[in-house]
Amino acid sequence: MRKTILTAALLCAFLGTQAQEYYEKHVAFPAGATTEQKIDMASRLVPTPQQLAWQQMEFTCFLHFGINTFTGREWGDGKEDPAIFNPTELDCEQWVRALKEGGFKMAIITAKHHDGFCLWPTRTTKHSVTSSPWKNGKGDVVQELRKACDKYGLKFGVYLSPWDRNAECYGQGEAYNKFFIEQLTELLTNYGEVHEVWFDGANGEGPNGKKQEYDWDAILKTIRRLQPKAVTAIMGDDVRWVGNEGGLGRTTEWSATALMPNSYPGSDEVYKRLGINAMSKDLGSRELVSKASDLFWYPSEVDVSIRPGWFYHPEEDDRVKTPEQLVDLYYRSVGHNGTLLLNFPVDRNGLINPIDSANAVKYYQIIQQELKNNLVAGMKAKVSNERGGDYVASAMTDEDYDTYWATEDSVKTGDIEFSFSSPQRMNRMMLQEYIPLGQRVKAFTVEYKDKDGKWLPVRLNEETTTIGYKRLLRFETVVSDGIRIRITDARGPLCINNIGIYDAGQNADISYDVPTEKIESLPFTLTGVAEDDAKLAVDRNNQTTCFVNGNQLIIDLGEEKMISSFHFLPDQSEPNKGLISNYELAVGNTADQINKVVKAGEFSNIRNNPVLQSVYFTPTITRY
Fold first, then answer.
1. Burial zone of 346 (CB within 10 Å; 0-12 exposed, 13-18 middle, 19+ buried)
2. Do 586 and 598 form a contact (C-beta atoms < 8 A)?
3. Residue 227: what are its φ and ψ, rounded to 5°?
4. How many angstroms separate the Cα of 206 from the Cα of each of 36, 83, 115, 428, 556?
5. Of 92, 99, 129, 96, which is closest to residue 112 (Cα–Cα)?
């Protein structure tokens, strides 16, 4: 655990004169620490400079290329003949030019995949480009990409598969670890600065039928010694896998998380004790932090391929993700506090297919256009908090990441309001916390002012919980002369450094009127309601309604489950019956103790506009 003390000058700007202890990358809670003490320490967990620089790239790319490209497989078996590797038109500059135009900041090459075939002339094995006809065995794909990245200003990363289905020493313990570290050493000493080293978690059998126990401590120490500025990903301890290969970040995405890097000794026991893994929805709630003994700054990398497969398959040429699909993934990856790692499969000629590159460039252009004009750039916001007093702050709209607005001491809520001289069209928002001082926001809402001066919530299709490095929201267009962000809960004092509000244009307008038949829900029963009546609440038919006597409804999920939202479609008859204007949602794990309120509020304008009402809240585990 590395501790840091902020300088006096920064302290005066942030938290008065009280010195604050910060924890870089890892914090271990003292024995007997209370939940409140843990939450306070969690608010002061911060990234390393390398992790911050990685997060600020936002767009990175994978390049899957190797022996699988020529066999049509996704995972090779290590028995392939190197003679089939012959990309006669290989042009790494073509790759990088396309990536540069698509806004990508770094390229990561699969220097060796599970088949063991090496794209560089290694001394460790003959199963490499030296045994191929490409350039008469004198070629080096890694070197060519390195030079292209230098020429066009992209950062450079390497993927090296720990699993090796060709190496005879795989599964022999120390012998293979020495072999693997020698390969790693070649890549980290012969190709200039490396910015990311990527290991996946695959660990199958080798040629001898045995699995290998990797020496992660020695592996990570080698990287720290040879490339101290590089981040280590997935089986490394700087960057974690988001938990899927679909390009989807969580709507509640904590970088300061209880998920221990899997390469650390004892991680499996920690996962079991906390009931979490890389795919868990909850990685940082108050309940989870209260049970944890450590927290880690371990941000998510959201990986996805532009095609169904990771390696090139000609039959997938008509299945490349469209620019519009990529735009959606951007909002759900970078916009959910992650970094996007988009894969491009290089074809058998050694080129990125023109369909792939064209779609990637178009998608970047759409993003640039949608977020081009920040309506609040340079404006002063009216800010207030629980201690009262309104004042203006411009640090949040100057588009400088190193300036920010912060609350004092223990203030964990605040309103940030913008007023316009005339009504503006708005349908996108960007929020950023200043993560060199930690990730803190746990819940917020966004509201606009209607023509009568009343504040109403914008219509979203996702919960508004964490912010982190960047949160992007798409909401149904409003035209208003006022909009505000209400931060309702946080781990510690607020520290907001950038806000953007945009009109993405008529073509980008969206509506969140969800067809009733497409509503998805966890199964449940209604306590105290006749079975036939209760069915009317879950039949996805907007022409049927379940009416309940009294002002209380108990929903039984049957067992404890994670929930984060509640959706209510009012009666659709004319006139509407049984409308609910105000609500309080409470949870509990026994029927007689349903008393923890997770959200309360009103269904605004429901009488005049009885559409589907959606309420999002911090994920919680409950039965009732």
1. buried
2. yes
3. -140, 70
4. 48, 22, 10, 50, 49
5. 129
Q: Which residues partner with 404 through β-bridges?
A: none
* Cα separation, 8 vs 571, whole angstroms: 59
| Number of residues in the chain | 624
Where do we find the tokens 């890694």?
142
What's the CA gap between 25 and 372, in Å, rounded?
34
What percentage of the chain's residues is helix, strand, coil (to nearest 5)? 25, 30, 50
With beta carbons less than 8 A apart as the criterion, state whether 267 and 276 touch.
Answer: no
What whole-number distance in Å separates Cα of residue 297 and Cα of residue 42? Answer: 10
CB 316 within 8 A of CB 322: no
Q: How far apart are CA 614 and CA 595, in angstroms?
A: 21
- Rounded to whole angstroms, how far apart are CA atoms 611 and 469? 33
Residues 136-167 as b or e (16 or more Cβ within 10 Å = b): eeebbbbbbbbbbbeebebbbbbbbbbbbbbb
- The 10s digit of each residue's pLDDT in 337-379 is 999 999 999 999 999 999 999 999 999 999 999 999 999 999 9
Q: Considering only CA atoms, which of 427, 443, 426 is closest in space to residue 475?
A: 427
More confident residue, 147 or 538: 147
Q: How far is CA 560 from the centre of its chain?
A: 26
pTM for the model:
0.83
How distant, in Å, are the alpha carbons of 229, 254, 382, 585 from that of 232? 10, 18, 41, 42
Q: Provide the pLDDT for residue 212.
A: 93
